[in-house]
Amino acid sequence: MHPSLVVAALVLPLALAAPASSRLPGTFVRRQLNDTCGLSAVQQPPSTLTPPDAHNQLVLIALGRGTQNYTCADEASVPASIGAVANLFNASCDVAEATSLGAVSEDANAIGQHFFVDATTPEFDIIGLGNAQVKKVENAAAPQAGNIPWLKLDAKDQSTAVRNVYRLNTKGGVAPTTCAGQAPGSVVQVAYEAQYWVYASPDAMAARRRKRSLGLPLN
Ligand SMILES: *[C@@H]1O[C@H](CO)[C@@H](O)[C@H](O)[C@H]1NC(C)=O
Ligand SMILES: *[C@@H]1O[C@H](CO)[C@@H](O)[C@H](O)[C@H]1NC(C)=O
Ligand SMILES: *[C@@H]1O[C@H](CO)[C@@H](O)[C@H](O)[C@H]1NC(C)=O
């Protein structure tokens, strides 16, 4: 039987939305990829997650906006995670320049996609950084209830320059507590937002730049 689709909380309440940027249109300044808006000085919000290897460099803070998907085997079960789908926006400058680390701009630029290749393998396809598959290595409860956990994700291999991705400052995305009222096999989609802090190997970034300048194929 074809699984029915149950759409829950597809639109985040406006009250949860981040405040609009105070930056005026037309004042946008392009900066160097290797130190976007002074990202080297930006610190993660405090958490119990292990910090990235000091050798790796923060190269992007992406705003992810999409849905966490869960499935219900039957009404007596609890919803099980089957992945997520999100659009990624370049929010590096917004976070670097914001007074609050939680602030993200509505005008952030589209920069890629986040999705799952199977139930446990997240992938990040990011323009300029390649297509990186990652695995979850740590999680930490979000500081405020009602938001999905913060995560440390490590690259599954070294086919791209990306080495770690942290999911931080999450909003929403939490599964319903039970499957009561859900059809067997249904997919429950819950809207969420998160910041994905992307760390890369400077050596691998330099190798990418060399390859690009030679016109060689990049992942
Ligand atoms: C994000 O945007 C800033 C500002 O335009 C830019 O300098 C930076 O290269 C972008 N990041 C990536 C990974 O493209
Ligand atoms: C970062 O960018 C600056 C300005 O273009 C450049 O001088 C510097 O060599 C770059 N550093 C690295 C590690 O690529
Ligand atoms: C998850 O939900 C998205 C819509 O947000 C949908 O496009 C995607 O196919 C769903 N994935 C699964 C595995 O159900």
From TrEMBL:
Residues 1-17 form the signal peptide. The keyword Plastid does not apply. It comes from the Eukaryota. Keywords: Signal. Pfam families: DUF3455. This is Malate dehydrogenase.
